[in-house]
Amino acid sequence: MASALTVLLLEPSYPKPNISLLSPSGGVSLGGALTILCCGQHEGLQFVLNKEGRTVQWVNSDYLALFTINNVRQEHSGIYSCSYHNQSQPSAVSYPSDPMELVVRDFTNANITRLVLGAMVLLILGLILAEAYYSRPRGGALGAWIRPSGDENLPREQAASPRGAETPAQPPLLPNTPAPENPPQELPI
Fold first, then answer.
1. What are the DSSP calls for the chain, one per residue?
2. How far apart are CA 32 and CA 49, in angstroms?
3. Quick one: pLDDT band at residue 51, thresholds 50, 70, 90?
4. Residue 20 to residues 23, 35, 39, 57, 96, Cα–Cα distance (Å)
5. How confident is the model at residue 7, as a pLDDT?
6. Is the Cα torsion angle 39, 42, 44, 50 positive or negative in sign?
7. Is the pLDDT assigned to residue 186 strictly greater than 90?
8. Are 84 and 45 in contact (CB under 8 A)?
9. Is the whole model's pTM more than 0.70, yes or no?
10. Residue 92: what pLDDT?
11. Whole-angstrom Cα distance, residue 147 to residue 134?
12. Secondary structure of 41-92 in HEC code, one letter for each residue
């Protein structure tokens, strides 16, 4: 009968509190600090922070409690909840809060710097590859290495000579081959 009486006394009589991570909002990194907020609905309470069923901290406060963890380590990761009870009536307890998962990330400033530098190196390598790809000759002919200018972009049959006459088609020059001397042109009289 005594055990049944104990169970009745510990039956939750207060609603569950709300639990949230106040800082930092973008995630928790190694070596940093964090604050967990637990909000109740009454005065004169003792709030208890639990990690996976074990008590981590407790705070006497009205309506809310702030739990601070400094120098965060990987072992601080886990599932947290909080509850509260009346300081003057320890048997008046709340239901536990909804669970909150805390994930500690290993993104220290040094790691972020390394990631940024690595991304910059990959970007530069990509630009070098793109430049090499787009500057290579097209068509596969040896003459493709010689870049045309002006009328040379047209087929040789359509390119006009200085006198307006068509020039005979000439085979493309091989690299490092001197250009033949141009024959003298007749001047109009």
1. -HHHHHHHHTS--BPPPEEEEEE-TT-EETT--EEEEEE-SSSSEEEEEEETTEEEEEEEESSEEEEEE-S--GGG-EEEEEEEEESS-TT-BBPPPPPEEE-EE---HHHHHHHHHHHHHHHHHHHHHHHHHHHS-SSS-GGGGSPP-GGGGS-TTTPBPTTSSBPPP-PPPPTTPPPPPPPPPPPP-
2. 19
3. very high
4. 9, 9, 9, 15, 13
5. 41
6. negative
7. no
8. yes
9. no
10. 85
11. 14
12. CCCCEEEEEEECCEEEEEEEECCEEEEEECCCCHHHCEEEEEEEEECCCCCC
For 110-123, the pLDDT digits (tens) are 677 888 889 999 99
- Is beta strand 54-61 parallel, antiparallel or unpaired with respect to 45-51? antiparallel
Residue type at position 29: S
The predicted-structure confidence for 135-170, as pLDDT tens digits, reads as follows: 887 765 555 555 555 555 555 555 555 554 555 556
